[in-house]
Design goal:
The protein is mainly beta and 955 residues long. The longest helix is centred in the N-terminal third of the chain and has 20 residues, at 2-21.
């Protein structure tokens, strides 16, 4: 036994050595010890790797590695991650960063060579002060640059105190930041008694300012309250005792600014902090309309002038301190002009007769329509002649609330000519070719509140051209990649629709509608069912034009080169077998919702490293997937992971040889996903799969020897042994993974099978013994010396191994073997009619159907003719008579009774007497039925066939 284990131990040592020499590695480069990184800033974590795929997990420790906190999981190929350091409790001089393989690999990791410092430089009030007496005292140095307040949810208020004298100006700014969940805050100012001085303001991720000028000396308070969970916020506090200045520099009088354009409002300031409010007036300052509140430090604001009612030559702009300051303010030194230069139909024209008449000059550049909600329809008229091509484009813009519009085209009588289209903040086009002369109408309807929209109108009398340039025939475009559809056009405006066909234009599928002016569209080819060599692409005018269109001059190929399992395999036995070539570049799985599981099988050896990546893509609806790894028995090996539109990786290092399974499950509707599979192995390997121990095979049968292999192996040798000697099954068989073996039937014994490379460098054998049982057949009767009566009904008896399903039964005569019956169920007996002839030295043989196993009579038997007579009897079915008798002059040996179907009902042994008796109820217990039977009575001198009837019982 020791000697037989030496090759296995040597092979195991070789595997270990090879695994070490080709193992993957990862090295953390930064931070690597001695650095000082500050909370609230971003720093790069960097690393290098070799032979590692998939994702890595980044973690940090504040106590030299005793506890680890996860930072993020990122692809190992990135090599770098910018870590924004969120708040923690205390400065740590014992910090470390660790990087480790994120999947179920072999524990590859690295960490900082030495500790570094994670530093806190900020106001850090973890337990907010809940009384005025314990409020944190602010000073002028507590500015935004060094003041990070981490809010804890245990309390709900922060108090900050500050001292002022009359005339002091105070500036606060509070800015909330998201932490682990949504985080709202409220801020307000309290007087010296703690009463609210300024109304509180809500803040959601934007800066909230309070500016305050003290009118008496005292201690005031600034209060911050959480509205939801915990997070953090910045606090800026500044105090100024100088007299501030604020000067508006533009517009300062005499300018002309047009509605629908942007102009810079500019100012200068001195000694002023926080925010300023900008306003404008159309009547020399009688009424003011707020523009915006912005930081005073900006010095400039680009004012996009929204619609107003009429041109004003009495406009002013004002700038003022937005906080509770001392009223610092300035405005334009003189009036300027706010000008309207546009189509401006405030009261829409509600009849065709009053419709605004459009001309070709009414283009997008000078046509802004301000819609008012008092009426609900705008009409625009235009004249056209047969062949004229008209292009409209309407684009809605948000103003004070959501604003939807509908647009459609009317004929000369005002009836709808084109179906209306809905538009939500995107351009809506109607292209139209007139077929007769007349005045047509374009109608715009508001679907909600008021706002404004742009209107472009163009008319063209030339004949348009549209030419598809690619694909134009002969190309091969692959599913899962993007290709440019290109075209040229002349005299065509608006949009074009792109479509494709898989059957030379019989059916068309829409790709997209795009502006004709683009000239190109990158088509990402989504999944379709089968490769088509009859594909075409068509481009056509999207509006109601004259049908200008073009398509590919000849067919091209839309090609599928991918794993495409439309009906997922729901059993391990039918799982798709993956190979190292099934990578992300050529593996697109189109998921169908009929079934809910995909199984993929792969073979692995100890030390093999497997990398999976699954990436879901949205198709027609939301599509979630779950993925997990199964062991060789189909049991879960790794916990499943949920993936939503991002790459999910599973990395796995095999610890034993076998077939493993990768499972993908849909969580919602159907879509598609990419599957990347990679396997890394260091050296050739062999693993025997079957027989591997515990199997029970029978001699003479064919069974498949199967194995797994990896690496460069040309041929293998197959052997078996029941002891120390190995018997060759095949000396050199191609490495195909299976071999059909005719199992020897020489004896019953326990065996072990071995598979090896021809040079014996690698090999594997059955993990334990398997059993081969010899299959046997033994003929029992007739087995030699018997004297059978010609024409007699007799029975052939045999015994056989139960795994033999059917047998062939033959008799040997002068011309050779003749079949009596085949196939015959292996039940051990066959009723047969002895040949009606005189013969000697006859033999009977029972065989398997392939004649591999058989047995025949040990010696010959004889057949002699006999005199047969037939007699008929009627027997009354009278249960008062228990027995009936047959009597003959010659001693009776046996009686066989058959029904009319030839089935033997009973067998009676007479023992040589001249008569035989039997009980009637052995044949039938039905008192009121008639039955016909045939009795074969074998005597020493003859064989008698007797037909008798059982009559119903007479009551």
């Amino acid at each position: 036994m020791v000697g037989s284990m030496k090759p296995f131990i040597t092979l195991l040592i070789l595997f270990v050595c090879l695994g070490v020499s080709h193992s993957a590695s990862i090295t953390l480069l930064s931070p690597n010890g001695g650095e000082t990184w500050n909370e609230g800033a971003a720093y790069p974590i960097t690393w290098s790797s070799d032979g590692l795929f998939g994702d890595v997990k980044l973690s940090y420790s504040l106590n030299q590695g005793t506890d680890w906190i996860t930072i993020e999981t990122v692809p190992v190929s990135d090599g770098s991650y910018d870590w924004f350091i969120l708040p923690f409790d205390n400065t740590s001089e014992e910090a470390l960063v660790k990087i480790e393989e994120a999947g179920a690999g072999d524990g590859i990791s690295d960490s900082s060579d030495a500790v570094f410092t994670l530093h806190i430089e900020r106001l850090d009030i973890y337990e907010p002060n809940n009384t005025l007496e314990t409020a944190y005292k602010l000073s002028a140095s507590d500015s935004l640059t060094d003041c990070f307040i981490t809010y804890r949810p245990k309390r709900d208020s922060d108090y900050y105190a500050f001292d002022v004298l009359p005339g002091d100006r105070i500036y606060f700014r509070t800015h909330a930041e998201r932490s682990e969940n949504d985080f709202w805050i409220e801020v307000h100012l309290l007087d010296t008694n703690g009463q609210s001085l300024l109304a509180e303001e809500n803040d959601l991720w934007t800066s909230t300012s309070i500016n305050f000028t003290a009118t008496y000396a005292g201690t005031f308070y600034y209060r911050v309250t959480s509205m939801s969970g915990y997070g953090r916020y910045h606090l800026a506090f500044q105090k100024d005792t100088t007299s501030p200045e604020l000067t508006l520099t533009s517009p300062n009088g005499g300018e002309t600014w047009n509605e629908g354009a942007a102009y810079p409002i500019t100012w200068s300031s001195d000694g002023l902090f926080g925010d300023v409010k900008l306003s404008y007036s159309l009547n020399q300052g009688t009424d003011w309309i707020t523009i915006e509140t912005v930081p005073v430090s900006d010095g400039s604001y680009d004012w996009f002038i929204l619609p107003f009612d009429n041109t004003s030559e009495e406009a002013l702009v004002k700038i003022e301190d937005a906080g509770a300051g001392d009223g610092t303010v300035d405005s334009s030194d003189a009036v300027f002009t706010l000008h309207i230069e546009r189509l401006d139909i405030y009261e829409p024209n509600n009849t065709l007769e009053t419709a605004y008449n459009l001309s070709t000059s009414d283009s997008l550049t000078d046509c802004f329509i301000t819609y008012r909600p008092k009426r609900d329809t705008d009409y625009y008229a235009f004249d056209a002649f047969p062949g004229d091509r008209i292009y409209f484009r309407t684009h809605a813009e948000r103003r004070e609330n959501d604003f939807w519009i509908k647009v459609h085209l009317l004929d000369t009588n005002g009836q709808s000519l084109l179906a209306e289209k809905n538009d939500l903040w995107t351009s809506t086009s109607i292209n139209f070719t007139a077929t007769y002369e007349g005045t047509f109408y374009y109608r715009v309807t508001s679907m909600s509140g008021y706002g404004r929209y742009h209107l472009a109108f163009q008319k063209d009398t030339t004949s348009p051209e549209l030419t598809l340039t690619s694909p134009n025939g002969g190309e091969t475009w692959n599913e899962g990649a993007a290709y440019p559809i290109t075209w040229s056009s002349d005299g065509l405006f608006g949009d074009v629709k792109l479509s494709y066909s898989l059957n030379q234009g019989t059916d068309w599928i829409t790709i997209e509608t795009v502006p004709v002016s683009d000239g190109s569209y990158d088509w990402f080819i989504l999944p379709f069912d089968n490769t088509s060599e009859e594909a075409l692409v068509k481009i056509e005018e999207a509006g109601a034009g004259d049908g200008t269109a073009d398509s590919s001059d000849a067919v091209f190929t839309l090609h599928i080169e991918r794993l495409d399992i439309y009906e997922p395999n729901n059993t391990l036995e039918t799982a798709y077998k993956l190979s190292t070539s099934d990578s992300l570049t050529d593996c697109f799985i189109t998921y169908r919702p009929k079934l809910d599981t995909d199984y993929y099988a792969f073979d692995a050896f100890p030390g093999d490293r497997i990398y999976f990546r699954t990436h879901a893509e949205r198709s027609e609806n939301d599509f979630w997937i779950k993925v997990h790894l199964l062991d060789t028995n189909g049991q879960s090996l790794l916990a499943e992971e949920i993936d939503l539109w991002t790459s999910t990786s599973i990395n796995f290092t095999a610890t034993y040889a076998g077939t493993f399974y990768y499972r993908v499950t849909t969580m919602s509707g159907y879509g598609r996903y990419h599957l990347a599979f990679q396997k890394e192995t260091a050296s050739p390997k062999l693993r025997l799969v079957s027989p591997n121990g515990g199997e029970h095979w029978y001699g003479g049968e064919y069974h498949e020897i199967s194995w797994l292999s990896t690496g460069d192996i040309d041929s293998i040798k197959l052997e078996y042994s029941s002891g120390d000697e190995w018997i060759v099954i095949h000396p050199s068989f191609p490495d195909t993974g299976s071999f059909g073996w005719h199992v020897p039937n020489d004896s019953t014994r326990s065996l072990r099978l071995r598979i090896s490379a021809l040079d014996n460098s690698i090999r594997d054998e059955s993990d334990s013994l398997f059993l081969i049982t010899r299959r046997e057949i033994s003929l029992l009767y007739p087995n030699g010396g018997e004297l059978l009566e010609a024409g007699n009904i007799d029975t052939i008896f045999w015994s056989a191994t139960e795994t033999i399903d059917s047998v062939c039964i033959e008799i040997k005569n002068d011309t050779g073997w003749s079949v009596i019956a085949s196939p015959v169920v292996n039940n051990g007996k066959l009723v047969w009619s002895v040949p009606n002839m005189a013969a000697e030295n006859q033999l009977v043989r029972v065989s398997t159907l392939d004649y591999s196993i058989s047995d025949k009579s040990d010696s010959g038997f004889s057949i002699e003719p006999v005199v047969q007579t037939n007699k008929g009897y009627q027997i009354s079915y009278n249960f008062s008579v228990d027995n009936q008798n047959f009597g003959f002059n010659s001693p009776i040996k046996k009686v066989f009774i058959y029904n009319l179907s030839g089935m033997m009902i009973t067998e009676i042994t007479a023992g040589g007497a001249g008569n035989v008796s039997w009980r009637i109820n052995e044949l039938s217990n039905k008192r009121h039925s008639t039955h016909i039977y045939i009795a074969q009575i074998i005597t020493k001198a003859s064989i008698e066939h007797v037909t008798f009837v059982l009559l119903p019982k007479r009551e």
